[in-house]
Amino acid sequence: MAVGKEIRTQIKSIKNTQKITRAMEMVAASKMRKAQRRMQASKPYAAKMRNVIAHLAHAHPEYHHPYLSARESVKRVGYILITTDRGLCGGLNTNLLKTAVVSMREYHNQGIEAELCVIGSKGTGFLKRIGANIRATATHLGDEPGINDLIGSVKVMLDAYDNGEIDRLYLVSNEFVNTMTQTPLVEQLLPIAAEKPEQELKHHWDYIYEPEAKIVLDALMMRYIESLVYQGVVENIASEQAARMVAMKAATDNAGDLIDDLQLVYNKARQAAITQEISEIVAGAAAV
Amino acid sequence: MAMTFHVDIVSAEEQIFSGIAEMLFAPGAMGELGIMARHTPLLTPLKPGELRIRLVGGEEQSIYVSGGMLEVQPHVVTVLSDTAVRAKDLDEAAALESKERAEKALQEQSAEVDYALAEAQLAEAVAQLQTIRRMKSKRR
To answer: In terms of domains, do B48 and B100 share one?
Structure first.
């Protein structure tokens, strides 16, 4: 039966694809859990640092760090975009890049150009195509990125800010809401919006700085920004794995539907062939 | 009994230590520091070195830090530890490397970028096809 064989081969190939997507789903699920754990582990650092910086911003008026004060005129802006290295994760990167492009276009309409730092090869490919101004990249970070993979790229943007080449710096990354939802967010990194310290300062006190305030603050600010970017990267990995898990689950389900449909067609074809054969035999017998 | 204080040691990647201590020895940028409870507020960078914590009962625990920041308040001490070895030259080199990577990615028509490009074009074509199909089915 010629028809039957074709459909059987097709069913078999879809079954193989289904096996792959199911395996990818399970791998993504386990990687997501690990990434979530890392996400939690990186939170205390940034939280502690935010406390110290909030305190500094209030307790130390005589030295004003450039990262804390907003500039009056904005001529150029910088973006740090966090995308994934690999595909097959649904609309994660597309949504993120769309959000980024919308934000950049707003500035573009005001005559303000953007400088980009791209993390992840998916973003690099897209932004290169639309002719964006890419200053630095970091790709192939793997599933467990270290902060030293990011120091260089972040420094390029911080230097640009220090030299007045950019007047604002944004971080564009995916927020991990839950397994089903990841929302792209544009956050302002620089200048740092001064937060109120957790408890109101009852009396004025300040740290002793060793060796001096400026050096300590510079080191602290740089680390703070790096830790925020690092958190973004870790969160993006969790988002990536979650999105991939959902996408692969959908793919597995779709493959199942396809197989069911094809199975039905195959059974019908088989039945038709048998019926035809019987009627041929009966007709032959009647003729004799 | 000696006065105790809370010690938190965190790095950007994980929480390393959290607990009560009697005394903390840290490699400060200006020299070795010994900190006890009710120390005056202090903020200083750390050099790479050994951090020793004397726990309640006199037992000592040592942790290696590759630099970082030390924040001291009368009853809480926080160490913001670096995970990477930091130096101005090293940071500079990393920044240069990252810039070079960007330039390379922009110039060279690597297979990966081509692939991303092809993928983007394919996605566009698929979206167009879908729209056309939807319009056709509506017309019917």
So the answer is: no
ipTM of the complex: 0.71
Min Cα–Cα distance to chain A from B22, Å: 21
Mean pLDDT, 10 residues at a time, chain B of 140 residues: 86 86 91 91 88 89 87 90 72 80 72 65 77 77
Task: Give the mutation candidate from B80, B96, B114, B130 for the A interface (greatest A CB count, under 10 A).
Answer: B80
Positions of A marked catalytic: 89
Contact between residue A151 and residue A170 where contact means Cβ atoms under 8 Å apart: no
Give the three-state DSSP class for A72: coil
Q: How do A76-82 and A113-119 pair as beta strands? A: parallel
Give residue B102's domain range. 91-139
Per-residue pLDDT tens digits for A57-71: 666 656 677 887 788
> Which stretches of A120-158 are assigned E, i.e. beta strand?
134-138
What is the pTM assigned to this prediction?
0.82
For residue B88, the tally of other CB atoms under 10 A from its CB is 7
Pair B71, B110 in one domain = no
- b/e map of A34-49 (b: 16 or more CB within 10 Å)? ebbebbebbebbbebb
